[in-house]
Amino acid sequence: MAASLQKQLGRFLRKKRGDLTLPAYARKVGISSSSLHRMEMGEQNVTLKTLEQLLKRLNCRVGDVFDDLAVQSKAD
Length: 76
Known about the structure:
Elements: H1 5-17, H2 22-29, H3 33-40, H4 48-58, H5 62-65, H6 67-75
Helix pairs in contact: 1-3, 2-3
């Protein structure tokens, strides 16, 4: 696997945050700024419950976050 799931989630969250400050985005997605920072750095383990909350708040699907996996599984 090219990148860990944590790193993929981190890149996705950082991209979705855009120009919002870390505290503002953390409030939007319903987690602490410190947790969000660790997630964006790929250093935070995320429970399925937290992932589900993030997906709901960001109005996206799991495939949007982990699109590399979908491409890789089709190649396998």
